[in-house]
Amino acid sequence: MFSLRTAALAVGLCPLLPGLAMAQIDYRNLDDDRPVVTEDAYPIERYAFEFLAPYRFEAEAGGQLHTAVPEAEYGLARNAQVGIKLPLAAVDDATGTDLGLAGLRVFGLYNFNTESRWLPALSLRADATFPVGSLAGNGTRFALKAIATRSWGRMRVHLNAARGFGSEDALSVAEALNRWNASLAVDRTFFRSSILLIGEVAVSQAVQDAPTGVNASLGGRWQWTPTLVLDAGVTRRLRSGIGPDIALTIGLSHAFAIRGLMPTGPR
């Protein structure tokens, strides 16, 4: 009876349109770690909000890591967004379980070139993490990321490359900014079912002189309702001893606009 429920919800939300119209294809917007590391070059709509609630499980030989990362994003201006993350983590190992806050992360993204005939969509993202909480590590870190997205019909290719700076002493157990990382992802849209499928290969180095990790991921995003998107993914390391034996992620995002905060005059 999903179709009837969805139809009823859509009718109930009609008075809020067009503020909700932008959310109806939110399943195509790749956020970092939702459900793969790679993100696309497009910010959320201007004056729109998005709340994200992902959960991630990682299993390695030494133990397990459970992470929940509440996140809020806001379309600050045309082609620009800002956001905040508050990662919560639980580490299970031979000594027991540690549970706590794993830092505070703020970020901004600006799309300075939309996709054209000759050029991909290009964006620059800046992140900062602060040692807030018992599992957050000891130092403040910053990172800059370049993002490119190119479309061919229902298929898109995304390239991300990031460089981190700052203290490399005892990084956070979750949402840490690596010394460097890069990823390549391909996604395919299925419009009739509002589904996006993604495949990814990612490489990273946590700190200087650390071994390079290579991971492969598969994921999907589904537009459950006009404003709610479900995502799920699985990650497996490709290099022995570096990265998770297996990682699973599942999340829910809610995108909306508050009409009272949107300008009513000429744009």
Order of helices and strands: HEEEEEEEEEEEEEEE
Radius of gyration: 19 Å
Q: How many extended strands?
A: 15
Cα separation of the termini: 41 Å
Indicate the percent of residues in helices: under 10%
Overall pLDDT metric: 88
Which homologous superfamily in CATH is the superfamily? monomeric porin ompg
CATH architectural grouping: Beta Barrel
Shape, per Cα inertia axes: globular
Weakly predicted, low-confidence segments:
1-22
CATH class term: Mainly Beta
How would you describe the oligomerization state of the chains in this entry? single chain
Major sheet attributes: 12 strands, antiparallel, barrel
Under CATH, the topology is which?
Porin
| Tally of domains | 1
How much beta, percentage-wise? over 45%
Given helix and strand content, the structural type is: mainly beta
Give a verbal description of the structure.
- This protein is mainly β.
- The chain has one domain: monomeric porin ompg (Porin, Beta Barrel), CATH 2.40.160.
- The protein is built from one helix and 15 strands.
- It has one helix at residues 2-13; strands at residues 48-60, 63-68, 71-77, 80-85, 88-93, 96-101, 104-113, 121-130, 141-152, 155-166, 180-190, 195-205, 213-223, 228-237, 246-257.
- A hairpin with a 4-residue loop joins strand 11 and strand 12 (195-205).
- The longest helix is centred in the first third of the chain and has 12 residues, at 2-13.
- It is globular and about 50 Å long.
